[in-house]
Design brief:
Length: 445
């Protein structure tokens, strides 16, 4: 039975680069995938493109391509990534520039666009997941990007692309596309598309399935996380997969690490909605078949819905923040007093703030006062005051008030920091697939 090997070189935009190099050099892979777009990332990329039309793609695209492009070109490894973000054509042009600088030849780079559907939404009355019309966001609206499926990536592979760079596509589609291309699966073979979507879901977060975001010392120990190896999926023509990693790399592939990733961000295991298929993971089986080798199979699928999810990015508000530390005897009391002072100062100075938080980091910042134990005295406490405002000017004033604790607050405060910025938020809506048209642009050398 035919097999192909797919390596996952990144699970998010800022991920480590060395594991991708290791996969290209030692992984004996056919495809190297970089999944680098989160919900909010593409809205931030649209902001960057508005400031400079030549930008809007992943900030680490150039570093990643410099690191792996030559190796992949020499070994015939195809690269597929969504690092194009808001500017796939700009990303493709950058990749071509890097390839030329490396002296590479006979390279075909495909840029897949069409996910930007802002103009489509502006022509209709679409309701977002908050129940409000999308266009009610007015001039706060930044971006609207539909999740494309695997079809345009399959088309690009069929036309000989060596590198594919996309904007918003469904994360599993980055893996599903080469499987469809390599095995000749039909686009209505829902069973195999369900299997391939499972493989894509298992690989999309890279190191999360090889021990990253898993370790809990004393309960779930993982060796050598500083050299975490990223995963390889050995996929068979029937869609079953063995998850493994480069021998000797850090981390581990076990049934437990795979099960955690299998459940990650899955709302309904029996109906995982994607642009290509409604995947059903409810009968999946996981079994260890060797050291760092786990076999996974049993997914299936049902016909797709014909609707595409659209991420709508917008400027929600502004946020101001200030922090200060207290240590030694009485640290908690002094930190609490500091928060009380800032709360009173914001009223006296008439700072126009809406939602506001007063956190004692190390005491109640994560689970809140009602769930955090209060029977121990911490040696050090850092206060964090964070407020939401309608203007950047008001947001700046919050950090300024925290900073004045240096000379106007409790004894021993130090290490003040402050920041203010706009808040880019995301809502979702649905769009008929028929209203979205993907396009492919090629760069060749």
């Amino acid at each position: 039975m035919k097999n192909i090997r797919i390596g996952a070189g990144a699970g998010y935009s800022g991920d480590r680069i060395e594991p991708a190099i290791e996969l290209a050099e030692k992984g004996d892979i056919d495809y190297l995938i970089f999944e680098c777009l989160a919900e909010r990332t593409i809205a931030l990329a649209q902001q960057a493109k508005m400031k400079d039309p030549s930008l809007g793609y992943d900030p680490l695209l150039a570093d990643r391509m410099h690191a792996v492009l030559r190796i992949c070109s020499e070994k015939g490894i195809k690269i597929i990534t969504n690092m194009g973000a808001a500017n796939p054509q700009g990303a493709a042009a950058k990749i071509k520039e890097i390839a030329v600088s490396l002296g590479l030849v006979n390279l075909k780079i495909a840029a897949i666009s069409g996910d930007d559907v802002l103009s489509v939404l502006q022509q209709g009355n679409y309701i977002d997941d908050s129940g409000q019309p999308v266009m009610a966001l007015g001039d706060k609206l930044l971006s609207a990007n539909a999740y494309l499926g695997a079809q345009p990536l399959v088309d690009a592979l069929a036309q000989g692309a060596d590198v594919i760079v996309t904007g918003r596509v469904a994360d599993p589609a980055l893996v599903l596309a080469p499987l469809i291309h390599a095995f000749g699966w039909a686009m209505d073979d829902w069973h195999r598309l369900g299997q391939g979507t499972l493989v894509g879901h298992l690989l999309e977060c890279a190191g999360q399935i090889t021990g990253g975001y898993f370790a809990d010392p004393g309960y779930k120990d993982v060796a050598d996380l500083a050299r975490l190896g990223f995963p390889i999926g050995e996929v068979s023509e029937d869609g079953s997969v063995v998850i493994t990693k480069v021998a000797g790399s850090g981390g581990q592939v076990t049934a437990a690490t795979c099960k955690e990733q299998l459940l990650y961000e899955i709302h309904d295991p029996a109906a995982y909605l994607t642009p290509d298929v409604v995947a059903d993971f409810s009968a999946v089986t996981v079994s260890e078949v060797g050291i760092d080798r786990v076999a996974i199979q049993g997914a299936t699928g049902h016909p797709k819905t014909g609707m595409l999810k659209v991420s709508v990015g917008y400027i929600d508000s502004y946020v101001g923040e200030g922090q200060m530390s207290y240590a030694g005897p009485g640290a908690l009391a002094r930190a609490t007093l500091a928060c009380d002072i800032v709360a009173e100062r914001l009223k006296i100075a008439d700072v126009k703030v809406g939602e506001i938080r007063y956190d004692l980091i190390g005491v109640n910042a994560i689970h809140g006062a009602s769930l955090s134990p209060t029977d121990t005295e911490p040696y050090e406490v850092r206060i964090r005051v964070t407020g939401r405002t309608d203007s950047l000017k008001e947001a700046i004033r919050i950090g300024n008030e925290v900073e004045t604790l240096y000379t106007c607050g409790p004894a021993g405060g130090g290490g003040a920091t402050k920041a203010a910025k706009d808040v880019v938020a995301v809502r979702s809506t649905l769009l008929p697939e028929a209203l979205v048209t993907a396009s492919i642009h090629y760069e060749e050398i």
